[in-house]
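Many introductory courses stop at the sequence. We go one step further.
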Amino acid sequence: MTIISPERIAQIAARRDELQALMATGDLPSDRFVAVSKEYAELEPVVKAACEVRRLRAELEVLAGLAESPDSDSDIREMARDEIADIKSRLPEAERHLALALLPRDAADERAAMLEIRAGTGGDEAALFAGDLFRMYQRYADTHGWRVELISASPAELGGYKEVIASVNGQGVFARMKFESGVHRVQRVPATEAGGRIHTSAATVAVLPEAEEVDVKIDDKDLRIDIYRSSGSGGQSVNTTDSAVRIVHIPTGLTVIQQDEKSQHKNKAKAMKVLRTRLYEAERERLHAERAGARKSMVGSGDRSERIRTYNYPQGRVTDHRINLTLHRLPEILQGDMDDLIGALIAEDEAERLATLDA
């Protein structure tokens, strides 16, 4: 456990007081005020955690003096020893809470997320599974009051999706969803399987933090935009207008196709949203690789070729392979009851990051 020094705690409190004084002057430019108030809001929970640690340590010091003082009567010394035991049992958790508050935060944690699910190996069964995963995430979003907006979908003939992309908006979406990126595997007996044999198929999930226009500057000259007639499902008018949009980002070769809307302008807006998010994620990955070097997180790198989880229907279990966690609650998880699973991944990530502080 990392022990935060009294000097570091004092520095944190002093910085909070400095920011508070700056805001109280009332003469900061608006952009500076926004930056200062944002830093203050981020620092306030850290200060509260630091003050709790400082309070417990101070009480411990006073009680230790009482317990050891020859001037204290036996009852006072006994009471002090009991309280010392109580504080010593609470102090490590308070110090852990402070250490967690001091960990560098992922700047994208509070952002909305772009959820992309693609059927992998397994044909029709993989597409059905991709549909199951999408519904699972929709239900999970509902439990947190998040809004899911469908960006594009490529339905499969027997149900489910070959590919589905959605935007998930709400508080702390990316923080809770970011560990879902990777290969999800399902083991079950397909409805079309007469012999009752268990089949294995897979779907790939990508969760990307959504980018704002200010995050990614895209020059018009770097884009090639093609307009053409939509194909596939989409209603009677889908093939009567040139509304489908293909955008190619020439420097990177990234291509986004959008044709779900009947309006060319809506399709272009959605395609730009997806392109901006993918470019933003590519830059995040580049910076992360520079900072992390060859080190790989225990919870996972978010590499979408990495098998992360198995959903076994015959045994009613879900196993997350990154943290060796098995829950025999498959039906509930598919209904969106994922907090235990995601909470365990977040806890594992925090534990590893705390361990790097001790290293």
